[in-house]
Amino acid sequence: MPLRLATQVTGTFVALAALASWSVADAQDDAAALQTAVLAGSCANCHGTDGHSPGAIPSLAGKKEEDLLKALTAFKQGKAKVTVMTRLAKGYTDEQLAALAHYFATRE
Ligand code: HEC
Question: How far apart are the C-alpha atoms of 35 and 39, rounded to whole Å?
Fold first, then answer.
C-alpha cells in the first residue's frame, strides 16, 4: 500500500514537473517571439508593416532568411556602401539580427 501511494505520488509529481517545465519553455518561446516583434516594429517606419514596403525602400517580407542576415551582417560590419542601415545595424546584437532575419523571412 505505501509503495503504491508513493508510486502514485511520484507519478503525479513527475507529470506536474513535466507540465511545469513545458509551460516555462513555452512561455520563453512566446517571450522571445514578442521581443523580436517589438524589435521589428522599429523597422516598420521605413520597411513598412511586417516588411511590406509601400515605397522605394526595399521590402523585407518573405525574402530569404540567409540573404537578410547576410545584408544585416554586412551593414553591421560596415561592409556595405549604405548610410542608414550601416548605422542602424550596429545597434543590434548578432542574435537580434538573426532573429530579425528569421522574422522577416517568415512574413507573408
Ligand atoms: C530610417 C529608415 C530605416 C529603418 C528604420 C530601417 N531600415 Fe533597413 N533599409 C533602409 C534603407 C534606406 C535601405 C536601403 C539600403 C540603404 O540605403 O541603407 C535598407 C535596407 C535594408 C536591408 C537590405 C534589403 C535588401 O533587399 O537589400 C535589410 C535586410 C534591412 N534594411 C533590414 C532592416 C531591419 C531588420 C530594420 C529594423 C531593425 C531596418 N532595416 C530598419 C532604411 C531603414
Answer: 6
Q: Residue 68 has what pLDDT?
A: 97
- 44: its cell numbers: 516598420
How many other CB atoms are found less than 10 A from the CB of residue 45? 8
Q: How far apart are CA 108 and CA 104, in angstroms?
A: 9
85 Cα nearest atom in ligand 1? 18
Instruction: Measure 95 CA to ligand 1 centroid, in angstroms.
Output: 17
Q: Which amino acid is at 78?
A: G
CA 61 – ligand 1 centroid, Å: 12
pLDDT at 50 over 60: yes
CA dihedral sign, ordered 102, 104, 43, 89: positive
